[in-house]
Amino acid sequence: MIADRFFSSFEEGDPVPLAGEVGTGPGRPATAKAGAGFTGRHALRYERPGRVRLFEVDLPAGEHTELSYVVFPEEGLSIALDVELDDGSTLAGTLDPKAFYPGQWNLVRRPVPAGRTVRAIVLSGGDATGWLDDVRIADRPPRQHDPVDWVRTTRGTHSSAEFSRGNTFPATAVPHGFNFWTPVTDASSTTWLYEYHRRNDAANRPRLEGFALSHQPSPWMGDRHTFHVVPAGDLAFGHEHETDRPYHYGVRFDSGTSVELAPADHATMFRFSFPGEAVVGFSCNRGNVRLDPKRGIVTGHTRVRSRLSVGARRMFVYGTFDRPGRRRGKALAFDTGTVELRIATSLISLKQARRNLGQEIPAGTAFEQVRDDAREAWQGLLGRVELDGATEDQLTTFYSGLYRLFLYPNSGHEDTPSGRRHASPVVRRWWPSTRKRTGAKVLDGPMSVNNGFWDTYRTCWPAYALLAPARCGELIEGFVQQYREGGWIARWSSPGYANLMTGTSSDVAFADAYLKGVRGFDVHAAYEAALKNATVPPPNRAVGRKGLRESIFLGYTPLSTHEGLSWALEACVNDFGIANLAEALGHRDDAKYFRRRALNYVHHFDDRVGFFQGRHRDGRWRWSPQEYGPTRWGFDYTETDGWNMAFSVPHDGKGLANLFGGRAGLESKLDTFFSTPETGRNTGSYGGIIHEMTEARDVRLGQYGHSNQPSHHIPFMYLHAGAPGKAQAVVREVLTRCYLGSEIGQGYPGDEDNGEMSAWYVFAALGLYPLAVGSPVYVLGAPLFPRATIRLENGNQVVITTSGTGMYVRRLRVNGEWHEQSWLAHDVLAAGATLEFTLGEEPSGWGGPPPSLTEGDAPPRPLTDLTGHSRPDLAALFDDTSRTQITFDTATPAIEYTVDGPPRPVEVYTLTPGSRGAPTAWVLEGSADGRHWETLDSRADETFRWQRQTRPFALATPAALPHYRLRVTAATGRRLSLAQWELLAGER
User: Fold this and answer.
1) Which pTM was predicted?
2) pLDDT of 572 above 90
3) First-to-final CA distance of the chain
4) Using an 8 Å Cβ cutoff, are 338 and 328 in contact?
5) Which residues does residue 966 pair with via DSSP β-bridges, in sequence order?
6) Is the bond into 495 cis (omega within 30 degrees of 0)?
7) Does the CA dihedral 476-480-486-488 come out positive or negative?
8) How many CA atoms are closer than 13 Å to the CA of 864, on its beta-carbon side?
9) What CA–CA distance (Å, rounded) separates 39 from 237?
10) How many CB atoms neighbour CB 166 within 10 A?
11) pLDDT for residue 963
12) Sign of the C-alpha dihedral, residues 432, 435, 436, 438?
């Protein structure tokens, strides 16, 4: 509870400032209402004020008194409010100008020493210009909360398409729930549903347009199946009259009406209180609403979907009030001021929606019971991590991050009389929908939806594996179901196969989970899905890996694939995960092949410029050294530039260092990266400024764009450079500066995609980070809190403590033993562990580099195709594309190949069948003279699961010979077709 001692928002009747000029506020804010203060219609304009007394006061300070204000810097960031105390002193400490975001409202809170008297509030601004509002001196006693009650669901909503501070909405739901319910400031939108400040009314008051059923994974993906509940009357309010918890949203409007909602999985419960008669309306932009006043029942369906809501069919709605009403247009009116509404949904049928309501919120259930059940579900997850010594802002940031992490992905299944079933978002065949039944095919089993794996593989899925492995397995099984039904796992499940972003990153995410002990899913089907992504050209652009028809043979992704460089580097990360999973499952040929394929990033490294860049199919680079610019956005890079892609080899840091000339070269490259300013103006192929550019600029950490996921691992690459102290310094600055603003709807430096930005904070604050996703290893940093306790699902605990001051790790004990490495195996944590960090003010020599694919000091050497020749009529077998094929007149041909130049040792060969007649048995032979042949490998009873699948086969002993012959001895048809035969050799 905050008790004001002094307050001015520069409105009529507020204390009048002694300096500055009261005006109408900033003209073009990126995320706020233009021409208004932060609250109210006015703010104080300051222009190069120097140091001036703003208000004369006489206020004794208590134990918990603080000065707070919001500031909107336009030019210059060295701006601060201070106080003059009765002895002429001022507040302790100084403000870091980098803590302010330019062109946005920023909240500042500073403690006032107890027992002193504040005589004046002073403005210090030097040459800065901008706006001030909501100057307050108040008593703010500390609060004690359970983890779930630190969460603010409005965090990240003070955003727009121009600048993201999260781009979230206040989703009220159960963990991984089927539905979200949210207040909306724009009921017509499927993108920015709730804008904390920007859509305020003419009096600068927040105003709702209703409460929406939502399934939005991201504003950029758009919402689907929206359905609105609209209480009658004026819906203006103040954020101070808002309750924004995961299990309970509530608001008291200026009119005196209040609305509360509490969620279940497929259902929710509303409680309305009106100063007069209750009137509650309903609307749906695409669908219908039917009212039964005598029974107080509302039914309907919604067909709302965004352009990227692929696979979304019809959703049914069934709701019932606690009493009958009277029809008033599309609303029901009641003789009382307080009514309750229970409402549920289904993707299967209206009957199933009614069943879902009865199962989850039966008639007679108290609102408090629904709220408390949801609270318990959240507390059970969030309470697995206990923090000691964290500030209130850190607690809000940390636990709000865990809420966002466990909000996604979402369940897409329902409990029916015949068991768990779902309306499939990935099966193409469908039936005409009716008023009561869906148009999707209804199938048995679980279904998981709403995940962009390019974002979430980096930190979300490793967090699930550590904090909630049973739930992680269930979620994976729901995505594996997509593979069973539609043949693929979505890259971006929204809910089906959305054509967006690069990489088939479920490959590495699910491999990582299995390697960390997650079970409860069909790992063999998950492996098949990953193998298909990595070895089969996709039938369309919405699934699989783009460019695979050529890149799998070239070793790089050519310019014919949009953003091909990003596709190539993501492929290496995913191949790393597949290799490790293949090893664990006993697929040794696959393991060897994919482990070497994970080194293919070297084929995109242009040592003339020292950066990764795109290549033409014939091997030429996109840019000459004179043309290349690493600060240019787009072209080869997804949502970033050459600098931020220069370190995208988290699985092989030593190999990357070797490309830069060694660990010292990598350290120097990183130093330059963090010291080269991002201007946000080099638009490249985008042709205009996109929000990620502006956000990367305003992070003000050189080129480092913590505002977007491709950069999130980069600080930790200092560990591979042998400079862990530099990693610790960058990570600590990000933790303390880039996640501020929870109380005013900010909190993130960019898009909080499905929990990934949050999971980064959670890991980094604990002193852990899953740098090499796809391996059961964490790198270590300096924890943010004096003590953190992780209660693992298996009953063990991980206790992380710090002693000393500063941001640098001086030494570490693990389970009482000195630990000198900057990494730790997952098994150590899973068994229960105590990590005791000693911190210092200066970097130390602690922390040996983490594991890497590459050992030694030589550049990485992936296997490469042997250059050679065969008969002219067989050229299609060696043309580095599976688009072409050779169909033989027989099922058992013999194909010879002669190496051009000195032979290199063949370690693996691959076969890619065509569209008919795949080989099932064969012999690979080698010869020194082309006449006498020796058997190098023989296979029988082999299968190719998919057409044009590239399968690898490892030789027991590498062979370096000038001649090779493939003799097929059996095939599936009368005639054999092959698209490619590839001999992959290492260096001599």
Assistant:
1) 0.97
2) yes
3) 73
4) no
5) 895, 924
6) yes
7) positive
8) 14
9) 12
10) 27
11) 98
12) positive
